[in-house]
Design brief:
single chain, about 0% strand
Amino acid sequence: MPQDDDHAADDRAGEHGTGGHGARRGNPALTSRAAILAVVVCAIALSLAYPVREYIAQRKEIADLRHKEAVARRQVDELLQRKQQLGDKSYIEREATRRLHYCRPDVKCYIVLDGSGGEGRQAQRGGPPSRPPWYETLWRSVEAADRPR
């Protein structure tokens, strides 16, 4: 069957005055229809390039903003938890005792002065000496300011 189709195509070509058997008119590599199609495809591609690029950039920006929002929400949750802690009287008392060496009137507190405390141990280990409490540093600066020059 394919041979019959080839002969029919040759006969039609012959009717249009192309000559003999197999002497078809040669199609150029780029016809005007193909050139117009290529121009249209390029125009469509160029017209879509900028919106697609903007779409991708906006999607990335949205993802970044969602990440920042999640971080901010975590920070808010941590701050709310910290606020709750600071509202708890027992927590404040523990922190005052631990940080400021505060002692309530109904509790007996002891301070060991024999030198075998934390400062002596760190000096023996060779580690850096611990910093004095903030109030001691403050008092030293006040004394230094009072000295005559």
